[in-house]
User: Fold Synaptosomal-associated protein 29 from Notiomystis cincta.
Amino acid sequence: ELVRQGEALKRTEQMVDKMDQDLKTSQRHINSIKSVWGGLVNYFKAKPPESKPEQNGAPEYYANTRLKEAMMSSKEQESKYQESHPNLRKLDNSDNDFNKADLVSSVQRDAYPKNQQLRAYHQKIDNNLDEMSSGLSRLKSLALGLQTEIEEQDDMLDRLTKKVETLDVNIKNTDRKVRQL
Assistant:
C-alpha cells in the first residue's frame, strides 16, 4: 500500500510540474497578446524547454531499497515461518510430543541438564526463542524499511505542497491578467 501511495505521489508531482510548465507557456501568450512590446520580448526570449511526455504515463516509482530488501527477505522466510508456526503446522498429539533424539543431537549435551525430559523442554524453549528472534528480526527490518519509505514520501509531500502553493499563486495572477485583457 505504501509503495502504491508513493507511485501516486510521484504521478501527482509530475502533473503539477506539467501544470507549471503550461502556466509559463500561458504567461508567454498573455504577454504577446497584451502588447507589441511583450510579443517582441517573447520572440527574443528563449523558449522554456519542453519536457517529453512519459511513455505509458509516469515512470515507475521505486520504493527505497531498504523496504524492498525487507519485503523480499520476509517473503523468503514466510514459507519457513508457516512450517514452524505452532498454529500453522500439523500438531502431533502422540504421547511423545517431540523426538528427543533429534533435539539432543542438534545441541551440545553439556548445555542442558542431564534429565532427558528437562533437557528436551530446554531445547524446545530454545527453539521457540530462536523462532521468535527470527520473527522479530523480520519485523524489525520491515519496520525500518517502512520508516525510510515514509520519510521519503514525507519529503515528497513537502516538495509537492510547496509546488502547489506556488502554482496556486501563479494561477491566480494569470487569471487576474486574463481578466484585465
